[in-house]
Specification:
This protein has 152 residues and is an alpha+beta fold. Helix content is 26%, strand content 43%.
Length: 152
């Protein structure tokens, strides 16, 4: 099993941080999504879309596309879990299934956000996907931190 696992401290409440994963305006601000349909409830949709890049990755083609899954568990102000998740790139076959697990723990006046995405099949496309995910999602989570801290 391959995974992306990243944690960071954010000066905001867990509820505010988790809301930013479901609110259209927040998602556009920190994750640069163009559209989203995300319902914070069990069996809710979790679908986000990014603009297609003009440049092409040698393995995956154009980046952007959509990420979609089903919210299996949602605990307000604490965590959510998305299963049966797939990345649907502009070019090529979907990559998945994967799981996305997001937890937020209060620690004094800050919260610790942990984002874990897992799933794996042997192949060059999966390897490249996780290479790009590590760079791009880490940068997006840093943007999330800046976004919610600036809105305090």
């Amino acid at each position: 099993m391959r995974e992306f696992d990243h944690s960071l401290a954010i000066e905001a409440s867990p509820a505010r941080i988790l809301d930013a994963f479901f609110n259209n305006d927040d998602l556009a601000a920190w994750w640069h999504v163009t559209r989203s349909l995300c319902h914070p409830r069990p069996l809710g949709n979790y679908a986000i879309e990014w603009a297609q890049t003009e440049s092409r990755d040698n393995v995956l083609g154009r980046l952007g596309g959509a990420f979609r899954g089903t919210v299996i568990d949602f605990r307000p102000g604490r965590e959510f879990f998305v299963a049966d998740a797939y990345w649907l790139p502009p070019d090529g076959e979907p990559i998945g299934p994967m799981a996305l697990e997001v937890t937020c723990t209060e620690l004094g006046e800050r919260s610790v956000l942990r984002v874990r995405q897992s799933g794996w099949e042997d192949g060059v496309r999966w390897t490249r996907y996780y290479q790009l995910l590590a760079v791009n999602l880490t940068a997006a989570l840093n943007d999330l931190k800046s976004h919610v801290e600036s809105r305090r």
